[in-house]
Amino acid sequence: MTAHEPPPELVLGSRRFRQEREASWKALEALLDIAERKSVRGLDDDALVALPMLYRATLSSLSVARATSLDADLIAYLEALSARAYFFVYGVQSGFWRRVRGFFARDWPAAMVALSGETLVAAALLLTGTIAGYIMVAHDPAWYASFVPASLASGRDPLATTAALRETLYGGEANPLAALAAFLFTHNAQVAIGAFALGFAFGLPTAFLLLTTGCMLGAFLVLFISHGLGVPIVGWLMIHGTTELFAIVVAGAAGFRIGRAIAFPGGLTRTAAATVAGRTAATAMLGVLVMLLVAGLLEGFARQLIKADAVRLAVASGMLALWLVYFYLPRKTARTNRHS
User: In terms of Cα–Cα distance, which of 245, 253, 251 is closest to 184?
Assistant: First the structure.
């Protein structure tokens, strides 16, 4: 052994150290290669969660390598790898307006695409509740009070006359429009947030809330249809309902995503699985708040100011088409995460 050669025990220790930890270094390298080619947006949710953990593991390896005086080449490699990762983990963050643009242009639609399956399930439950509520109230009007709270009915109940019901569709409201919009926005936000928040209980309370919301809608429909006001009530409800109900469905889908991750975490712990799923769900919920704001404005202003059924239905159809195109029109930058 020459004076410049490391002792055999140091070479053996360095080799064993590399064998035990090299897999995590290579995994971090692979993520950094993708991020450097495509930016962090090129990483899916699992990769974004793994990146800081792999970075900390590499820092730990570097600390051990320095403390035990392992070979200089290995230390230099770990220093370079840690420096690369630092930029993406703690680098300069984009500005507020850039994030806002990114949310609307990329993040929100991508989250909606990722939640497509859960969205279909939530929509099916809402539709099932609507059909069930319609059938039950049509068979026995006493069910109406069970589905529609008095605060929301506001005199629109089985005892109301056709003239009174028609007046609610085309007449003025007692409350100022701004106050009505605020009240309805608060109520709808509570329903949507409840559908999301209850998802942690394996999604079962979320399913119940979607069904009961559908029953309320079905009860409203049968009441007005029985008085020959079928088309007017659809226009009256849907001018804001295509946005409002869509928002509630999306909130339910986000709740189902959390519930599915907790019930079936795969190879992760339940906490880790819920954290990964929560990234997509939280993005969708930010969008739900935007949708509810739009629905509140439509409900409190457009519905009261627009009296023609055809125009109300046109607005409702236009809003639904707008949301569908915005969410599901293919985008080059939209990525779905099917593993979270």
Answer: 245
